[in-house]
Amino acid sequence: MSAGRAHKRAPDRTATPKGRKASRPARARPAKARAASPARGRGGAAPRPARGVEDARRGLDRAAEAVRAAAATLAQVVDRIGEDALESERAGLASELASEQILRDLVKLQRAFAVVPQGTLPAELEALRTLPEAILDWAWRRLGVTPHLAVGQELEIPPDRLSSFALEGTLPTRGGLVRVRILAPGWKRGARVLVPPRAMIVQGP
């Protein structure tokens, strides 16, 4: 090839062929957003429940504790009602035994047995020798009834307290303390006197 011949230009590969429109440059497609996976704690452990769930659990625990406390209170009330009913029954029985003079007669029978030597009574009566003491002991243990003052005991009583005794005799004309002798014990339950003791006014200086 001679030096004077013009050099042929290489075809432009980027040139658009005749009759064909130039294509637009391809746009980069946006990457699809991946679904956010729940965060995991250290070691792959599941996250703690939401605060609302925790609050609900605490509220449930408080409600359960309140129900348990209410049930315990109700049980105590039921027990107290039962105890009050039992106490009322005991008080009624104690008053009846005392007011009907059953306890007084038991004391009389006990004293009568005491003055008779053991073994001198018929067998059917000897078998009853310990009965008065057993009943009086039962009345004390189960009902809380105890004798109030003892037979033969002498006391000096202010005039304003003489109403606490079933008195026999005439009140002295002089003022001051009044001497009395107990003829029969009274009966009391706790601080409450069920039957006043029977007493005789002792005359003298």
List the helices and strands and how they pair.
Blueprint: H1 51-99, H2 102-114, H3 123-126, H4 131-143, E1 145-148, E2 154-157, E3 166-168, E4 178-184, E5 186-189, E6 192-195, E7 198-201
Parallel strand pairs: 3-7
Antiparallel strand pairs: 1-5, 2-4, 4-7, 5-6
Give the overall shape.
Answer: elongated
Strand order of the largest sheet: 2-4-7-3
Radius of gyration, whole Å: 54 Å
Fraction of residues in helices?
25-40%
Structural class: alpha+beta
**Cα separation of the termini:** 180 Å
Q: What's the helix count?
A: 4
Oligomer: single chain
Beta-strand content bin:
5-15%
Quote the average pLDDT.
76
Low-confidence parts lasting 5 or more residues at pLDDT below 50?
1-8, 10-23
- Elements, N to C (H/E): HHHHEEEEEEE
The largest sheet is: 4 strands, mixed
Record field, number of beta strands: 7
Question: What would you note in describing this structure?
Answer:
The protein has 205 residues and is an alpha+beta fold. It has 4 helices and 7 strands; from the N terminus they run H-H-H-H-E-E-E-E-E-E-E. The strands form 2 sheets. The protein has a 4-stranded mixed beta sheet with strand order 2-4-7-3, with no helix packed on it. Strands 1-5-6 form a 3-stranded antiparallel beta sheet. A hairpin with a 2-residue loop joins strand 5 (186-189) and strand 6 (192-195). Helix 2 runs antiparallel to helix 4 (131-143). The longest helix has 49 residues, at 51-99. The N and C termini lie far apart (180 Å). Mean pLDDT is 76; it is low at 1-8 and 10-23.
Which characteristics define this entry?
elongated, 15% strand, four-stranded mixed sheet, 4 helices, three-stranded antiparallel sheet, 7 strands, alpha+beta, 205 residues
